[in-house]
Amino acid sequence: MADFKGGKLLAVIGDEDTCTGFLLGGVGEMDAKRQPNFLVVRKETAVSDIEESFKAFLTRTDIAIILINQNIAEMIRHLVDAHDKPTPAILEIPSKDHPYDPSKDGILRRARGMFNAEDFR
C-alpha cells in the first residue's frame, strides 16, 4: 500500500454536478481543521463565500491544484488573475451548463502571450 503522507490534494470549486463527480472519484478530503477541499456553489452562494474559499485554498500547503468551473472563476476573476505562484495551479474547467471558453481562461491567455507562431515551426 502506498504511503500518501505529505501528498498533495486537488481542490474543487464548482456547481453541484462538478463537485459530486469529483467527490465520487475520491478527491474529497478534510484538513486538520476539518475544512473540506471543495466548495459546492449554488445560486444562493454569495460571491464573498466563493472568494473566501478560494483564498483559503490558495494558502493551504496540502493543495497542489484548484479546479474551478470557468463560469465561477468569472465571478472572482480579479483573484484568479492575481494568482501568480506556480502552486497551487488553477485550472478552469467547463460545467454541464456552461461550456469552456478558451478566450476567458487566464492561464491560457498568459501562455498564449509567451509563444508566437515562429516557436512552432
From TrEMBL:
<keyword id="KW-0813">Transport</keyword>
<dbReference type="InterPro" id="IPR036906">
    <property type="entry name" value="ATPase_V1_fsu_sf"/>
</dbReference>
<comment type="subunit">
    <text>V-ATPase is a heteromultimeric enzyme made up of two complexes: the ATP-hydrolytic V1 complex and the proton translocation V0 complex.</text>
</comment>
<protein>
    <recommendedName>
        <fullName>V-type proton ATPase subunit F</fullName>
    </recommendedName>
</protein>
<dbReference type="InterPro" id="IPR008218">
    <property type="entry name" value="ATPase_V1-cplx_f_g_su"/>
</dbReference>
<dbReference type="GO" id="GO:0046961">
    <property type="term" value="F:proton-transporting ATPase activity, rotational mechanism"/>
</dbReference>
<dbReference type="InterPro" id="IPR005772">
    <property type="entry name" value="ATPase_V1-cplx_fsu_euk"/>
</dbReference>
<dbReference type="Pfam" id="PF01990">
    <property type="entry name" value="ATP-synt_F"/>
</dbReference>
<comment type="similarity">
    <text>Belongs to the V-ATPase F subunit family.</text>
</comment>
<comment type="function">
    <text>Subunit of the V1 complex of vacuolar(H+)-ATPase (V-ATPase), a multisubunit enzyme composed of a peripheral complex (V1) that hydrolyzes ATP and a membrane integral complex (V0) that translocates protons. V-ATPase is responsible for acidifying and maintaining the pH of intracellular compartments.</text>
</comment>
<keyword id="KW-0406">Ion transport</keyword>
<dbReference type="GO" id="GO:0033180">
    <property type="term" value="C:proton-transporting V-type ATPase, V1 domain"/>
</dbReference>
<keyword id="KW-0375">Hydrogen ion transport</keyword>
